[in-house]
Specification:
Length: 587
């Protein structure tokens, strides 16, 4: 997993390498200083006679100056190391976010069905930030810790091999304690990140459904739901961090125990005849112990950060390694010229392991320029059917042909550029009306925009009802305009693509009968060669279609004109009787 992340550091490999070199040099210099201090004490002060000492001033000044230079240089390379660590860490975060977002954009609808929306947002923001912060904050101490330990042990062995055994024992004991803590807390951090997903889901759900919550007076219920999710996160985090925090006192216990042991055993060695060790050696040892204490404090911080980051790294990597199930032939030279559509023995199920098909053995053909309506009861998979044409999902069985060519033989860009779809729930983005419309064609001229708007019957309301006209700012999601206005703007946006096939997925549901009739008339008169597929729950929307496909529980019940279906299809006739005949009686 870590290896797969290394490619994201490649653009910053020189900064990363410089950081490693600087930190290594800094550590080496810091460890050398206590050793030089030991040499200074031993050689800078000479015992001329019992209890009489003489300072070698020139030696002290020379070695002292060298130590000052080393300390200044260590500070300088330390600053450089920290700076380049930050550049590499933030660069990693930038590359991860970019690659993860790019990956999400390539996902099929089926891939997106496998992740919760709140989880994807957390993985793209919170998890990437934790990973980036970990690299920034832990690169320096992660390199310093082993280097300090190794150098400290080497110099300790030079001074006294016997006292060095104390170091080794302390490291073994500390290693066992830290390993036990890591083993417990590592899986807990994965649970914490899932609980963060849950908090995001509850919050997002509440914000999106705020009108419904207020209408049904469910404020207290939603507050309780959020409280339960928040309480679960708090409890799990507290238990996990409480155990994780034991790494610091464990390090202190090991180090203070080491100090006591060095003083005790050093004292015994000093008391032996001929001084098996000198007092200045014991002092140097204590200095190394203090360095080791600081190093272990670093390890404690690293431990906490790495344990937390490991869960985030896993979650980010899960997104990056999930490949889209839709394969793309980028170099295909096939082009859609007409816009005819044919379904041949098409069946589809969301889960390959499932036995239940949502669409079963569909066979029909739509000619270029035809206006085709699709109708059926709720849950008959009408929207799923048109999603297969743009390869948002791939068919489980059979094949779909456009211009007599299997859609899998077209590149995705060619396929989707040739098809425009206005979804059941129309979406507008924050920006001006013009900017939203230009999603259909970024190079669209003013005349093209106005023509599309006139066909979609939104030109008049843009100029007359919106204060800024085409420069009016649309709020996120299009909440600043009504449902009907939003639908017409989305139809105009789809028309600006100048597609061969136009798919309108219940895009007239918020329109009144007069406006709906005008839009359909405009589509027929102005775009006669464009294939038009209209999904609707209303008979009035599709009754004048060239042909109507009636779906029943994922199967085709019948295909025909309005008059033919009234005569031979009981489902269509039932819908007609309820909507038209029943509606006339009510009036």
């Amino acid at each position: 997993m870590i290896k797969s992340f290394s490619k994201f550091l490649k653009p910053y490999r020189w900064q990363f390498l410089i950081a490693i070199i600087c930190i290594s040099i800094e550590c080496g210099l810091e460890v050398v200083l206590p050793f030089l201090m030991n040499v200074l004490i031993k050689n800078g002060v000479n015992e001329t006679s019992p209890n009489t000492y003489q300072m070698n001033l020139n030696y002290v000044l020379m070695l002292g100056l060298i130590m000052i230079v080393i300390a200044i240089f260590a500070f300088f390379v330390g600053v450089l190391g920290a700076r380049f660590s930050a550049i590499a860490g933030r660069g990693l975060g930038y590359e991860l976010r970019k690659e993860e977002y790019k990956k999400l954009e390539s996902y099929s609808f089926k891939n997106l069905d496998n992740f919760r929306r709140s989880s994807l947002i957390t993985r793209l923001t919170n998890d990437v930030q934790i990973t980036s912060d970990t690299v920034c904050t832990c690169l320096r101490p992660t390199l310093r810790a082993p280097i300090m330990m190794i150098f400290s042990l080497v110099f300790a062995l030079i001074i006294s091999p016997l006292l060095s055994l104390v170091f080794l024992c302390a490291l073994i004991i500390l290693g066992v304690m830290i390993f036990s803590i890591v083993k417990y807390v590592k899986p807990k951090f994965k649970i914490i990140q899932k609980l963060v997903d849950n908090i995001n889901r509850v919050t997002q759900e509440s914000i999106v459904a705020i009108k419904t919550i207020k209408a049904y007076v469910k404020k207290d219920y939603e507050l309780l739901k959020f409280k339960e999710a928040n309480e679960e996160l708090k409890t799990t985090s507290r238990k996990t961090l409480s155990v994780n925090a034991l790494s610091m006192p464990a390090g202190q216990l090991a180090n203070y125990g080491t100090i006591i042991a060095i003083i005790y055993f050093g004292g015994i060695l000093y008391m032996q005849p001929g001084h098996a060790i000198f007092l200045e050696d014991i002092q140097t040892f204590l200095t190394y112990v203090m360095q080791l204490l600081a190093t272990i404090m670093m390890l404690s911080n690293i431990l906490m950060a790495v344990n937390r980051a490991s869960a985030s790294i896993f979650r980010v990597n899960e997104v990056l390694t999930t490949n889209s199930e839709i394969t793309d032939i980028y170099d295909s030279d096939k082009v859609i010229n007409k816009g005819s559509v044919e379904f041949k023995n098409v069946s589809f199920k969301y889960n390959l392991s499932s036995e239940e098909y949502v669409l079963k053995n569909l066979n029909f053909k739509i000619k270029e320029g035809e206006f085709v309506g699709i109708i059926g009861q709720t849950g008959s998979s009408k929207s799923t059917l048109v999603s297969l044409i743009e390869r948002f999902y791939d068919v489980s069985e059979g094949e779909i042909l456009l211009d007599d060519v299997n859609i899998k033989e077209y590149s995705l860009s060619q396929l989707r550029e040739s098809i425009a779809i206005s979804f059941q729930s129309p979406t507008l983005f924050k920006g001006t009306v013009t900017e939203n419309l230009k999603w259909g064609n970024k190079n669209a001229t003013k005349e093209q925009i106005e023509k599309a708007c006139k066909i979609a019957e939104c030109y008049s309301f843009i100029n007359e009802r919106l204060n800024g006209g085409f420069n009016t700012i649309i709020s996120q999601g299009g909440t600043s305009v009504s449902g009907g206005q939003r639908q017409r703007l989305c139809i105009a946006r789809a028309l600006l693509k100048n597609p061969k096939i136009l798919i309108l997925d219940d895009s007239f549901s918020a329109l009144d009968k007069i406006t709906e009739a005008k839009v359909k008339r405009n589509l027929k008169n102005e775009l006669p060669k464009m294939t038009k597929i209209v999904i609707s729950q209303k008979i009035s929307t599709i009754q004048d279609a060239d042909k109507i496909i009636v779906l029943d529980n994922g199967k085709i019940s019948n295909i025909g004109t309005h008059e033919e279906l009234l005569a031979k299809d009981h489902i269509y006739k039932d819908i007609y009787n309820l909507q038209v005949v029943g509606g006339e009686k009510d009036e």
